[in-house]
Amino acid sequence: MASVKSLCVFCGASARVDTAYRDAASRFGELIARSGVELVFGGGRIGLMGLVAGAALGAGGRVFGVIPRHLHDFELGDRPPLGELTVVETMHARKALMFERADAFAILPGGLGTLDETFEIVTWKQLGLHDKPIVIVDVAGYWGPLRALLDQVVTAGFAPPGARDLYRIVSSVDDVLPLLKRLPEPSLTPKSLLS
Q1: What is the pTM of this model?
Q2: 52 with 11: CB under 8 angstroms?
Q3: 6-182, what's its fold?
């Protein structure tokens, strides 16, 4: 069983999305809180990101956000942060601190920023920088095109077939935490990305 005390969730900051994605984000926040796992997230109050964190806090969970200074006003406005918040200077510092704080990663639907975070964390795993679990949550089939692209990368020979083992894909937020409990302990001692 993987020891997951903190789970980093990558997801969209847009509020102009289908109800299925918003409902999944809220439910996931509640599930994370009820499991006693700390939520690590991008620090903003908007979109799915804000829904996951708000639901986790509302259910009594621990929430740790990381936000770059240049996004602080846009993603928080004049509202107080959701949980503990650390302000960093760059997007790179944000991703590195989220990585350091998390024992595992879950990816909900999102945009270009979510894709950036997803590809970076999967690439770091491929390069041996970590062996933390990565779970892509294919809510309402959202990540179907990504699955096809990742299969194409392997089929075309740009990645070995084992690249598919770098992540898991589930169809519901309800499947994430049970899957993490079934996974083996990570086999690497992660290298710090902050030093």
Answers
A1: 0.92
A2: yes
A3: Rossmann fold (3.40.50)
